[in-house]
Amino acid sequence: MSEIRHLKPAGKAIFTDSYTKKAKELLTVWSPGKKAVFGLVGLPLSKPSISHSGAAFAPGTIRDALQSYSIYSGEQTFDLEDEIIDFGDLEMHPTDIVGSQKRLYEGLLDAFQTEAVENWFLLGGDHSVSYSAIKAFKERYGSVGIIQFDAHHDLRNTEDGGPTNGTPFRRLLEDTIISGEDLVQIGIRDFTNAKSYHEYAKKNKVTVYTMGDVQEKGIESILKYEIEKLAKRVDYIYLSVDMDVLDQAYAPGCPAIGPGGMASMTLLQGIHIASQYDSVKAMDIVEIDPTIDFRNMTSRVAAYVLLEFMKGKKLNNH
Fold this sequence. Notes:
Layout: E1 27-29, E2 36-43, H1 58-65, E3 72-73, E4 78-79, E5 84-89, H2 97-113, E6 117-124, H3 129-141, E7 144-149, H4 168-174, E8 183-188, H5 195-203, E9 207-210, H6 211-217, H7 219-231, E10 236-242, H8 264-274, E11 280-286, H9 297-317
Parallel strand pairs: 1-5, 2-5, 2-6, 6-11, 7-8, 7-10, 8-9, 10-11
Antiparallel strand pairs: 3-4
Helix pairs in contact: 1-9, 2-3, 3-4, 7-8, 8-9
């Protein structure tokens, strides 16, 4: 018999609704010459983490979490129809951390130079991947401003532990890849950082908004003010989303969970606002460890963040 009745290929959706398209169906494999509005690259590196982390598995779980959502925005009454070119994951060295960070830089520079897409989604990995990603982004696109959603400054010194997930923005500043005036940190949490690193941020003219500031000023007013200010100084703006900016109730899969963080709705609102600016062209999402997550809650938020970014871009182009 050449055909087996009622057979569903492994890995396909459990239930198919002929009127519903899932967000994961927007992913399409890259090939030379292919062009789209959005592109995605997985950065599966978590060995530089200060604490145990399985964040290298997150690019796959975030992709899978897109299956949880449709492409239809009921709020805006339109479908997200733009393809996301999926370049796959960059291959990491099994033991060489610095070598792996170099691979991230080289691989992303090659991806950026394809000119295949207008906006980039970069899925970590721990926050150490942002150093390589931002370095490559600047080399390809020009001066860059950073909006960092994070509970931590990530300005640790490199003498104590090398290029860990706590050092990416210190390294970017010390290597003059970015200026302190072009780095905005939002969601910095109490009892989560050392005084020395807060002082380092101030000394280097990094703009810091604590969670108290977010509550007092509101995410919308902060982002509009800071993005408009950055847009006058730099060519493009890069969003770096460390998922531990969220309260532990919303992100149980982060290695550094804690109370007093941002609600998921606040983060989504922030991404929606930021993505409507033409200057905002790239976003990384980092610090999700699927091995300690609960029902992939944290990866589901990350997937929603991608969709919110796409919705903002579509609104801006209407």
